[in-house]
Amino acid sequence: MTITTGAPATATDAQAVAAKRRRRLASGRDAGPLVYLSLSVIVLVSIFPLYYILVTATRTNAEMNTRNPPLTPGSNLIGNIASAMEQANIPLALFNSAWVSALVALGAVLTSTMAGFALSHLGMKHEGTWLGAVMGTMMVPLQLGVIPLFIFMAAVNLVGNPMSVVLPYLTAAFGVFFMRQYLAQAMPKSLLEAARVDGASTRRIFWRIVLPIASPGMAVLAMLTFMQAWNEFFWPIIALNPSNPTVQVAISQLGQGYVHDQSVIMAGIFVCTMPVIIAFILLGKRITSGIVEGAVK
Amino acid sequence: MLLHQNRKGLSTARQGYLYLAPFVLLFFAFGLFPLIYSAVISLSDARLQNPSGGEFVGLENYTALFADQFFWNALKNTVTLGFMAIGPQLVIALVVANLLNYRLKGQLFWRIAIIVPYATSVAAATLIFSQLYSENFGLVNGFLTTLGLPAVNWQSGTFASQVAIASIVTWRWVGYNALLYLAAMQAISPEQYEAAELDGASKFRQFLSITIPEIRGTIVFTVILSTIGGMQLFIEPLLYEGGPTGMSGGLSRQYQTLALYMYQQGWANNRLGYGSAIAFTTLVLILVVLAAGFLLVRLGRALSDANIRRARTQASLVASHPEPARMELA
Which residues cross the membrane (chain B) (predicted)? Predict the structure, then answer.
């Protein structure tokens, strides 16, 4: 068989073409216009409600309550925010949510990293069983235990105190699994063995070796946990009272009145939600890859 | 030397538990124990004013619960809302993941744009959607009437309001599930698609016969988590209409869920014992649903294994006239 024009002239060319083809296959098929079109429609649906917060928050209630409500932002944001502040203590809510979410993130990341270290490097007996049990706790619906939890918080005088929101969220099964995967991959056993030979205690190894290696993973987990704590609603609305709220409790208060001023509600939501959404978008690369890495494959 | 090893051996074994302990203890104290203890409280008439001082009343709360038409209404709503929210949510997520699995320009942009709803709090999402679905001034009805379609009563229509609430859940969770599916899809070896391509399988066929079976584990995982989430739907129905009717889940309780009914009984009607009975019953129901799900998955696996065995026997029967493609499949 003769080699026709256009076909690879030399063996190296043929290899290069084959390699290119393999690479193309490995990284997936190229997206056509239809894929981009479908994705654009989906993205539009997923972004529009967020854009509409901005539209409503910057308009007056009268402007929104028309047959054809506006689709572009107006100029009433400051006025609406001021009214929202009168209805709920939003500065206090922002402050509370910030420290509650930070404590939750810190605590959950620490307990997860410790447990992840134990389940990846300490050679525990029945390691698989323990990991299975931790994963199993993801199937336990914690919210259904709110009544005993409320009774406990009442007994220790923490009802109404944002600390009551911190305590139940100091553990995260997802976090344990995530940190275990991360450490198993990022920290070679030989490093641990070398440190042992040098006579380092487990505590020293944890603080001096594990934490520095785990810190990128811990950062991703901290962002996810902070966001979840910030958005938590069910337990805070039970455990806290309106005079000392977190942001979600404050938002729910805005909607509780007999007269609904949508623009004021949305202004409150705008102030309480945008910080997390903006941070999420800015840190999006690390967060999305974190979710993908932590996924059960 | 021996002493040294002994000390070290003991200490690592023990230290494993030591490092696991904070998670286990905190989870038990604030997660598992309250859940179990709700069974005890459900046997008492504990009230909000005196939460721990309830008197033992036996199964009274449960007999009352089973005769309570609002409980059955809440159970029915939870199931229908659950199906409406979980089914479309996971199907759309699969489609989105499949789209994201193409080689895309601006890959990161698409991923973030799709996951952003997950960063929005449920409370915020619900309040935005309740405005979009507003009967007279909402954009959705505005859009429908522009198209010449009749406006829908998204708030008091039973089916319509449940669709509206399910759409909020779907909106928030599609992106998250899509990313989980995407992660699983990226672990599938490209050779499988290549072989299917050579056999002339269409893209859709490849999706059904390769992609779906390969990520079955992840699908089961998301079904479990969404089922648990679906059984606990609370904030969406509470805030959808807002105001004082929030707790009853609409004027005619048309979307009052079990979690919402528990909240109403426990906190608005002061009946913590009765609320605990609702919570504990919900827990048992979740476990039953999950157990049934596991059995179904096992049954499905057994059936598909049997199919493979049958196919193999057939393949060995025709092996005297070997066809390359069929041999490869076997």
Answer: 16-37, 79-100, 112-134, 154-174, 215-235, 277-300
